[in-house]
UniProtKB/TrEMBL annotation:
InterPro entries documented for this protein: Iontro_rcpt_C, Solute-binding_3/MltF_N
PANTHER family documented for this protein: ARGININE-BINDING EXTRACELLULAR PROTEIN ARTP, MEMBRANE-BOUND LYTIC MUREIN TRANSGLYCOSYLASE F
Segments forming domain Ionotropic glutamate receptor C-terminal: 32-254
Source organism of this protein record: Cohnella kolymensis
CDD domains: PBP2_Arg_Lys_His (cd13624)
PROSITE patterns per UniProt: PROKAR_LIPOPROTEIN
Gene3D superfamilies attached to this UniProt entry: Periplasmic binding protein-like II (3.40.190.10)
Keywords linked to the UniProt accession: Signal
Name of the featured protein: Glutamine ABC transporter substrate-binding protein
Pfam families: SBP_bac_3 (PF00497)
Domain Solute-binding protein family 3/N-terminal: 32-255
Length: 265
């Protein structure tokens, strides 16, 4: 055999062996999946010093343990999270109280639902606001690119200057404190937690499922992600084996309706 041919054959064999080793490593669970979150949604996800904590963080840990997958959770901005997952860059998935909606399903995949929520109104004591319909002629603060943002635009009009959009719910609530808006609309868990932790602020929360409706959170994925078929069975098991109920009780001090969640697909 000619020396040149021998070296060429060795090179081919070496590349083949390396490729085989690489596939084996990924298949054996060595891959670390990178998850994004916007840790400004206490008690769902928030920073405790330099650690991301909250219901979503605990839930993800339980799901990934059940699935036998390694992961890392990164705190990023809400806008960054949405853009990255839509384009399928930087992150493999996102868990950040992300509502499964028809619009988002056009650009992204989602895991099976794992949390039922609704939007709530936060306003000051003595306010004439009693329901979502009372918001039509009021100044309302929302976090941009959230379902609260979409709901308020639908309830009023898309060019309504009274809808003030902020980078986070925390900034929107600060605007309410300072009198810049009459109310804030945000996820139920966020509003409830804020009222509970700030009794001195004299704020009240108003639930209006009739006008706001219910919504479900899911783990957000790029279109065609391999993770969905790995996450869905693990989420189902966590819902069924009592782990989810324990986490829900820990963070919300009430029982979870796991049966209703299991009905969702």
């Amino acid at each position: 055999m000619k020396k040149g041919l021998w070296f060429a054959l060795c090179a081919v064999l070496t590349v083949s062996l390396l490729a085989g080793c690489g596939a084996s490593n990924e298949g054996s669970g060595d891959k670390t999946y990178l998850f994004a979150t916007d840790a400004q949604y206490a008690p769902m996800e928030f920073m405790d010093k330099d650690k991301i904590t909250g219901f979503d963080a605990d839930f993800l840990e339980a799901v990934m343990k059940e699935a036998g997958l390694k992961y890392e959770l990164k705190n990023v901005g809400w806008d960054t999270l949405l853009v990255s997952l839509e384009k399928g860059i930087d992150y493999d998935a996102a868990i950040s109280s992300v509502t499964i909606s028809d619009d988002r399903l056009k650009t992204n995949d989602f895991s099976r639902p794992y949390f039922e929520s609704t939007n709530m109104i936060l306003t000051k004591e003595g306010s004439p606001i009693k329901s979502a319909l009372d918001l039509k002629d009021k100044k309302v603060g929302v976090q941009g690119l959230t379902t609260a943002d979409i709901l308020m635009m639908e309830l009023t009009s898309k060019d309504n200057a009274n809808i003030k959009k902020f980078d986070s719910n925390a900034v929107a609530i600060m605007e309410l404190e300072q009198g810049g808006v009459d109310a804030v609309v945000a996820d139920m868990a966020v509003v409830t937690e804020y009222v509970r932790n700030n009794p001195d602020k004299k704020f009240v929360s108003i639930i209006d499922v009739e006008n706001f409706g219910s919504e479900y959170y899911g783990i957000m994925l790029p279109k065609g992600s391999e993770l969905k078929v790995k996450l869905d069975p693990a989420i189902k098991t966590v819902l069924e084996n009592g782990t989810y109920a324990e986490l829900y009780k820990k963070w919300f001090n009430k029982d979870a309706d796991t049966a209703k969640l299991l009905e969702q697909q």
